[in-house]
Amino acid sequence: MILVVYPVISYGVNNLLTTFYPNDITPLANLSKQRFWTVYGIRALSCLFVIAMAGIGKFTFDWFKNLRIKRELETQNLTSELAFLKSQINPHFLFNTLNNIHTLAYKKADGAPEAIMKLSELMRYMIYESNVDVVPLTQEIEYLKSFIDLQELRFKTKGIVDFEISGAIEEAQIAPLILLPFVENAFKHGYQIDSQGAIQVSLLVGEQIEYSVINPFSASHSYEQRDEVGGIGLENIQRRLELIYPKQFELSIDQSEDHFKVKLIIQKT
What we know:
The chain is of the alpha+beta class and 269 residues long. 61% of the residues lie in helices and 16% in strands.
């Protein structure tokens, strides 16, 4: 309808202009007085061009709007999934730790009160201090050391974990609750770990963060629990790493007859 009406109206207006203002008319108006169909075609094409550009503009606007909405939904979904994965760590960790403290209390061990205090510190970090995207690496290390102290109280053995730290840890940051599950997994599934240096933990900070945990296995223990080793911890951390550090991390697991090793490399941003 627009293609028909607009050129006709324009033609009539041009004729009026040439009648009342013959000296001020554009060449197109003069042309329209002599060659109606030529100008009609030009006007139609011009109108079609305007309509097409308006359509393209509307399509582009809607496309960007829908893309923005899609990204917002994806971000919300990822945030919700990440929060869910993070929430799984707390009850899983708390359940295991309370079992350990129950064992200490049942045996009337002297370390039970200290274990409760360590648990309190850990829960404060997990509930209140880890509700951010990243934390200083030093803070995460202190949290990990508290967990190790708690486990050593359980086993009544000091120095079970040989923890080597090197590099500029003061300048690095990391997503909270990333380091714990690997050590927790070592304590849970390690074989004969109630001795000094049974679990080896290494943390090197340079251009990237390199973190590894090695715990001993016996051949029979390894095959009996091959399907149980991952547990909620490693599956959870694998997915969290994919969400927090997409294409910025490497996670490798090496299981042999006498050891289980997990190595994590995170690219610093």
